[in-house]
User: What shape does this take?
Amino acid sequence: MDAVHGLSRRSLPEAGALSASKSDIALSALQERLGYHFKSRDLLVEALTHASVLAGNAKNQRSYERLEFLGDRVLGLIVAERLSTDFPDEGEDGLAPRLNALVNRGACARAARRADLGPALRLSPSEAGQGGREKEQILADACESVIAGLYLDGGFAAARDFVLRFWGDEFSAVKELPRDAKTVLQEWAAAKKRVLTYELMERTGPEHAPRFVVEARVEGRSPARGEGGSKREAERAAASAFLREAGVDG
Assistant: This one.
């Protein structure tokens, strides 16, 4: 597994907001909360390392970006498996909206908070000082990278245990079929006889882990932005943000 993925045997410096001793304590405490102890400490460290820590360091050191890419796919498989079990009579039309509601930045960030990942994150002093341990995007990305770390270190079962434990409330919330935010916003805009558009504002990140920023615009109203790993995900996030700001119930 290590040779194939090239992910789990890379040592990283103990730089950043946490000292070496505090980092060790934070890692130990996190593993207790997870109920899983990593065989590869380096893999766990990588899963918790924000890119800000690596500025100016050697090129063979990595942040959690590659693990985040893998974790997103592992999470999607685990959620799809669970939904297939929970809703055996549902077709794709019933499963896909639930999957979208469970595999997104908000759900990942909430799971990260339940697991209390924040104290163990490795951030630069600047990022830590700006509240990085509570930022939704950082928590969501780190959550996916930890899922990948669990998958590589302990197999699919270890990753599944994490998701089923820390997504518990999320699975309960999709017993009723959720409505897609883009659909709700489209219906609202149509009822108001106003034009709804989405505009790509920014694309960042490497090819294997891009980040998109999209703005939802409705005539006569302030626009709202959303981010995601695909344009579609960013559009859903923008639609959700617009609905929240407009006080529209889904």
